[in-house]
Amino acid sequence: MGMEGIGARVARKEDKRFITGKGKYTDDMVVPGMKQAHFVRSPHAHAKIKSIDTSAAEKMPGVIGILNGAQLSEDAIGNIICGWMIHSKDGSPMNMGVWRPLAQDTVRYVGDAVAIVVADTKAQARDAAEAVVVEYETLPVVTSAVEALKEGAPQIHPEAKGNLIFDWEIGDSAATDAAIASAAHVTEMKIINNRLVPNPMEPRAALGVYDEGEDHYTLWTTSQNPHVARLVLSAFYNVAPENKLRVIAPDVGGGFGSKIYIYPEEIVCLWASKRTGVPVKWNCDRTEAFLTDAHGRDHVSTVKMAFDANNKITGFKVDTIANLGAYMSLFSSSVPTYLYATLLSGQYDIPAIHANVRTVYTNTVPVDAYRGAGRPEATYLLERTMETAARELGVTPAELRRTNFIREFPHQTPVIMCYDAGDYEASLSAAMKASEYDGFAARKAEAKSRGKLRGIGMSCYIEACGIAPSAAVGSLGAGVGLWESAEVRVNAVGTVEVLTGSHSHGQGHETTFAQLVAGRFGVGIDSVSIVHGDTDKVQMGMGTYGSRSGAVGMSAVVKALDKVEAKAKKIAAHLMEADESDIVIENGELKVAGTDKSVPWFQMALAAYTAHNLPEGMEPGLKEGAFYDPSNFTFPAGCYICEVEVDPDTGKTEIVQFVAADDFGKIINPMIVEGQVHGGLAQGIGQALLEGTHYDPETGQLLTASYMDYTMPRADDLPSFQVSTTETVCPSNPLGIKGCGEAGAIGSPPALINAITDAIGNNDLTMPATAPRVWAALASAQ
After folding, report:
1. d(C-alpha 260, C-alpha 147), whole Å
2. Where are the alpha helices (DSSP H) in 651-768?
3. What's the pLDDT score for residue 598?
4. pLDDT at residue 3 in the model
5. 84: pLDDT strictly greater than 90
6. How many Å apart are CA 167 and CA 768, to the nearest integer?
7. What residues pair up with 49 in beta bridges, in sequence order?
8. In this structure, what is the dihedral angle of CA atoms 653, 654, 655, 657, given to the nearest 10 degrees?
9. Nearest to 276 by CA among 26, 58, 27
10. Residue environment code for 228-243, b if the CB has 16+ CB neighbours within 10 A, otherwise e
11. pLDDT at site 468
12. How far apart are CA 653 and CA 401, in angstroms?
């Protein structure tokens, strides 16, 4: 391991341009003749469109064109798709309602796009959009998934009777019911996972350009997976042929899952560019983001956990109603099914599990993957139940977890997953030691002397990352493969370019991917460039989500590096008249082991391109590509412990300590990993303590559509985190990586809520645990 290789705490290369304002985001892109767009959106949550009158708006200054859904249909632009097919337990396919990029007959949530106005300036486009007259016939509204399933509820889509999208199950119902019936103790709970708005720092944006002379399309967009965007825009939406479409995702300021999808705005801007004859740019403002970015979570579940006389879990039964909003987004169907219920075993050896999931349409923003995507919902449900069970059984939370930990690997769960490696006891012990768990009673007594209520909570999470293999997920309904690609180019002077199908939107790929090359070839990371986000430069790849960039993306790079190394050694052996098996690479040189013979890395590279003295039959150049399809998921895991003080007079909660002990397998850059954990913890704490999306049940209006009403975590809401890692190497990829990007958001909410309920002595508390809500729970417990 070199100073810049695997395991080194290298400062992020990309941060220089970001902190000096030199980043290049979609909104920074300017092309000749570019015009601005603004969308006309429905002010109603559910209504028939009777007519659209654009006559006055078209006469306003600067207006280039106003387009609506009828014209979209004239050009045969396709419906927005969901890319993961789920079948109900009766075998019927999911009931997918029609989602037009511009609504034609019916709008189904506040913010549903009806028309696009293209004008010379943003202000002119906005003014003209306000002059478009849309006549609506309002319809009854339903915003709650539970209410939407009731008889007589407003019908959202004709394709989904009773608003039910699918009724799906996993596991053994009979065995689970038998375990519950014969249990020595059963813990029962109703658990709500609150709806969230992702709120990445950079709002979404799109710039569509049609070049009539070349008959070619270019789309700049805030995407986490530009190749998938290109595929879907061509194959399903019929906007442009794939070979005539370039999609570029430049610097992207955060995504958290919300920028995986292909939204109506990207489709419409690209189409509108051809229709109007001008480049069309749209920038989302923050209110539009609240109204249109895919939301996350929103589950209502009931659970039963069965224990025998020795406090061993014998069965776990879950019934979940998941709100998917007004339409099915790209991966929405996978989130409450295969990304959720397959993790319900957690870190525990549970012989019988059954989960039933009903997904529902409502008059709300579509719901899809948000940091963790199903794994936070599963962990919250499981870890709240475990903590509650420990209280009911009269044992410590740590003792109950230790009694039920999986200790032998590989371990096949009852819900598909086969865990390959782990040491859950190590993470628990590390967290308890760091938090000085044994001294909590004294700290609680001291807090009481100051009139404060002190509580401690624990959460032991597991997640599945690097979703794979492609054949397996395909059999479960995925519409795409989940492999990754890479190409490694060694230039004639020895510098290296890595072209990856992964995409960085804050993860630090330009540093960590370069560290991988630096450690392998002994070159400085400044000699390594990482290229991503441009479908004309990089071969087909699947993008970044689900903590897949290390385990899958880097593994593809490793395969390409293997090929480069093999060829480089052949060239060096030929130059030094040595045996290829004796060549080693150290400190930027290719050496003959046991001798003083060596060739500098740059000299070998130059020889590859001058081609004056290559082994017989060898092609010139030094460039290799690879595709990597994992053999299994990876399974990061850990233990989080949170300690809080609650003011009984106000209900305000202060986090006085938060400890995270994670097992991410091999770590490329510890500093970047710690940053990822910190960010995830902030988001998880935000969900548990502050964030919550609320709709008016009568009108469907989003009541939390700005930062005045939707509370984001601030610096003074968060403690200084204590983070550490244990290590069990992942056996299913060449680097032993498990992934770290989502862990903090997965494990933190239950730890915090467990701590607060411990402090106040009332287990009946739902997220977000705002001061009024905690105060009310305190009052009801007295």
Report:
1. 29
2. 670-689, 743-760
3. 97
4. 77
5. yes
6. 28
7. 136
8. -130
9. 58
10. bbbbbbbebbebbeee
11. 80
12. 26
SS3 for 527-567 is HEEEECCECCCCCCCCCCCCCCHHHHHHHHHHHHHHHHHHH
Q: Angle at the Cα of 661 (from 657 to 664), degrees rounded to 5?
A: 145
The pLDDT confidence band at residue 412, using thresholds 50, 70 and 90, is very high
Q: Determine contact, residues 144/360, Cβ cutoff 8 Å.
A: no
Residues 323, 362: contact at Cβ < 8 Å? yes
Q: Residue 12: how many CB atoms within 10 A of its CB? A: 19
CB 665 within 8 A of CB 727: yes
CA-based nearest residue to 232, from 472, 486, 485, 543: 543
Amino acid at 239: V
Average pLDDT over residues 61-66: 98
Confidence at residue 781, expressed as pLDDT on a 0 to 100 scale: 83
How far CA 429 is from CA of 424, 425, 638, 667, 754, in Å, comes to 9, 6, 10, 20, 18
SS3 460: strand
User: Could you tell me if 393 and 312 are in contact, meaning their C-beta atoms sit under 8 angstroms apart?
Assistant: no
- Residue 527 to residue 510: CA distance in whole angstroms: 12
Distance between CA atoms of 186 and 90, rounded to whole angstroms?
29
| CA distance to 662, 691, 694, 716, 778, per residue, from 706 (Å) | 34, 12, 12, 20, 29
What is the DSSP pairing of strand 299-307 with strand 280-283?
unpaired
Angle at 274 between CA 270 and CA 279, to 5 degrees: 65
- Residue 401: phi and psi, rounded to 5, are -70, -45
Contact in structure between 83 and 262 (CB atoms under 8 Å): no
Please state, in angstroms and rounded to a whole number, the distance separating the CA atoms of residues 768 and 750.
Answer: 11
Higher pLDDT, 534 or 468: 534
Q: What band does 1 get if pLDDT is binned at 50, 70 and 90?
A: very low
| Strand pairing category for 589-592 and 583-586 | antiparallel
Confidence class for position 782, pLDDT limits 50, 70, 90 = confident
Burial grade of 454 (CB within 10 A; 0-12, 13-18, 19 or more): buried
Could you tell me the sign of the dihedral formed by the alpha carbons of 692, 251, 541, 667, in that order? negative
Mean pLDDT (the chain, rounded): 97
pLDDT at 544 over 70: yes
Q: What is the rounded distance in angstroms from the CA atom of residue 686 to the CA atom of residue 770?
A: 10
Q: How far apart are CA 507 and CA 697, in angstroms?
A: 38
Scan for tokens 């304002």, then name that residue: 21
Cα 642 from Cα 757, distance rounded (Å) = 12
